[in-house]
Design goal:
Blueprint: E1 7-14, E2 43-51, E3 60-68, H1 75-91, E4 100-107, H2 113-124, E5 133-135, E6 157-159, E7 167-176, E8 187-191, H3 202-215, E9 219-222, H4 226-229, H5 232-251, H6 261-280, H7 288-291, E10 297-303, H8 311-333, E11 346-348, E12 354-356, H9 357-368, H10 370-396, H11 413-437, H12 445-467, H13 483-505, H14 507-523, H15 527-532, H16 536-553, H17 555-567, H18 574-586, H19 590-610
Helix pairs in contact: 1-8, 3-8, 5-6, 6-14, 9-14, 10-13, 11-12, 11-13, 11-19, 12-18, 13-14, 13-19, 14-16, 14-19
Length: 614
């Protein structure tokens, strides 16, 4: 980098400890919480080079990121460094550059995400003199290439304060995958999902797709759910849609609905993958760190068709990869402003097709629309029953006189509201329990999930006795037997509020969550009412639906069913649910809070309504 006239600096960072901490949600771990007894092997050192644009004013920059393991570098990482090196050397000599170029060679010994996130944090909120400096002579065990004896950085000092450029217009993470699968041609995989379902502007993906497919002849693809590609029922459904499309086109040639079966299956698997990874809220690559600072970024992973051991093949591959990156840099360089004309909320069905928020938000609105209507209907029916019972009491006891303007029946919903509030409070307690379970040494995932279940049940019992929850199924008064309708009404309103709040944070998570929560809330009915009902078939159907929905809606059961459908039954185990949740809270995903504080309380309330003694 220095040979090209770039400003070179070195950024030291610490490996983050992925442990659950309730105060770290929606924020990065505090960089000041570092133990003094950290060894030098726990340090990572990023190399940062900056080219100043000859036609720019230093207010904007484009970032190139190449993760590599400084201890044991692979061939793919070396080739990705070669692509960035060739592009960097070209950009140091051009005269058309209007934005500064930052090349971040990220030390990925402790993961690919950690070095990029640490550098971005210090880039935007620098700590001058907070961590001191690291001498290469005192940290020889770190084994980085530039710290070895006789190396280019031998005997120098590595400072924490790195160079700075302007506001980041876009960022590209360049990776070359080691060949572990056979492909027909060089393939470019695009990863765009960031934390909590954030996506970069669609124009950036379109630019990369166009230049890769039409400029360099690469096969561009995005992530798919492999299980759906071999699904028989999806193939049958695709054949039905293809037949209907051909029929429609025969009636009117302008109707182009005849989607081929293969394209339908591939689009559906891509759509399901995009929806799932957005709902998960976990970044799919180092580019996710940039979205936390509202910088459009994607990861470009290039899979070569042939092995790169051949020198001629490697040179051709470097040239094609370098031209692709150069084309993207030139496209972003020509912009007078940041990407903003296209979509930020969308679901991908292929690298060049998508479903916009204006389309898939209709499905979410239609899903939750019945909930407030049912809640109002239940409250109205419960009020009418209370009014008729009060009238009967007055008729049978004419001497009883109520004070004017004081009617207890209009405040009965407060008891139901109290129950719903406390159960959601219990959900907050459940979400905090893993912080204490993680303190137990040598605890396996299966043991952790069992301890979590027992502590959750115990905390619910404690809340029942301390706050007086009406969780009794033995004997209740006549007036309490009708309170299930009010309880269901308030539960539905709480579910609507939770889903709407989640849609603001992560729309995909709210979309999937509504598929589970809405049917459970609508179908929840006391079992005894159906048992006493004279309509046997209708009652049996409703009981079966309630039992099935409660089983599927229970979070561990839903996880096991989904993972079994995606990855096969051999990968299903009880401890897998704990490991999955552990990844959610390690990445500060809001989906974890949704599961514990919205989905689980709604499920518990609906289960109580189902077992209500009315």
């Amino acid at each position: 980098m220095a040979e090209f006239g770039a400003e070179v600096s070195y950024h030291k960072f610490y490996a983050q400890i992925d442990k659950f901490h309730p105060l770290h949600f929606f924020s990065s771990p505090d960089p000041g919480i570092i133990h003094e007894n950290y060894s030098c092997s726990a340090y990572g050192v990023n190399t940062v080079g900056i080219i100043r644009a000859p036609r720019g004013d230093g207010k904007e920059a484009i970032v190139l990121v190449t993760p590599y393991n400084s201890v044991k570098i692979t061939l793919g990482e070396a080739v990705s460094l070669g692509i960035a090196y060739s592009v960097f050397s070209l950009l140091s000599r051009v005269t058309w550059l209007a934005k500064d170029i930052i090349w971040l060679a990220a030390d990925s010994r402790h993961g690919e995400y950690a070095p990029v996130a640490a550098w971005l944090r210090d880039y935007h909120t620098p700590l001058f003199g907070g961590l001191g400096k690291l001498h290469s002579e005192t940290c020889r065990e770190s084994s980085t290439p530039f710290e070895s004896e006789g190396g280019p950085m031998s005997g120098t000092q590595i400072y924490d304060v790195s160079g700075r450029a302007g506001t980041m217009a876009a960022a590209l993470v360049i990776k070359v995958a080691d060949r572990n699968e056979e492909v027909e041609k060089d393939t470019l995989s695009i990863y765009a999902e960031a934390s909590n379902g954030q996506m970069p502007n669609l124009d950036l993906i379109n630019v990369v797709d166009y230049l890769a497919a039409h400029g360099q002849g690469l096969h561009v693809k995005v992530k798919k759910l492999r299980s759906l590609l071999d699904s028989k029922w999806l193939k049958i459904l695709g054949e039905i849609f293809e037949s209907l499309g051909k029929l429609a086109r025969s009636l009117n040639p302008q109707w182009k609905f005849d989607i081929p079966v293969a394209e339908y299956i591939e689009g559906t698997s891509t759509l399901a993958s995009s929806l799932y990874y957005q709902a998960l809220g976990v970044p799919t690559g180092p580019h996710g760190a940039f979205r936390d600072y509202q910088v459009d970024a994607i990861t470009l992973e290039i899979l070569p068709k042939l092995s790169l051991d051949n020198k001629d093949r490697r040179n051709d591959f470097l040239q094609r990869g370098g031209r692709l990156v150069e084309g993207v840099v030139r496209s972003v360089n020509n912009l007078l402003e940041k990407f903003h004309q296209s979509f930020f909320l969308y679901l991908l069905t292929s690298s060049r097709k998508f479903v916009s928020v204006g389309v898939y938000m209709i499905a979410f609105a239609l899903l939750i629309a019945p909930l407030p209507i049912v809640a109002a209907s239940l409250y109205s029916d419960a009020s009418k029953l209370d009014s008729s019972s009060e009238k009967d009491k007055t008729t049978s006891c004419p001497d009883s006189v109520d004070e004017p303007g004081i009617t207890f029946k209009s405040w009965k919903w407060l008891q139901a509201a109290k129950t719903v509030f406390v159960v959601h409070l219990w959900g907050g307690v459940v979400s905090l329990l893993p912080y204490f379970i993680c303190q137990i040494p040598d605890c396996t995932p299966t043991t952790s999930i069992l301890i979590w279940v027992m502590l959750s049940v115990f905390s619910l019992i404690v809340l029942h006795f301390t706050l007086g929850l009406p969780f009794t199924l033995i004997s209740v008064s006549q007036s309490q037997r009708r309170d299930w309708a009010l309880l269901k009404s308030v539960t539905i309103l709480a579910a609507v509020i939770g889903l709407c709040l989640m849609s603001i944070i992560n729309f995909a998570a709210a979309e999937i969550g509504s598929l589970f929560v809405v049917p459970i809330c609508l179908m929840a009915t006391p079992l005894r009412l159906d048992v006493k009902s004279r309509r046997t078939l209708r009652a049996f159907t409703r009981i079966s639906c309630n039992v099935l929905l409660l089983l599927i809606g229970f979070p561990p059961a839903a996880f096991i069913l989904f993972k079994g459908a995606v990855e096969g039954t051999s990968s299903v185990n009880v401890g897998g649910f704990w490991s999955w949740l552990e990844s959610l809270w390690a990445w500060n995903s809001a989906t974890y809070l949704y599961i514990c504080m919205v989905h689980l309380p709604c499920w518990a309330l609906c289960a109580y309504i189902f077992l209500h003694r009315c």
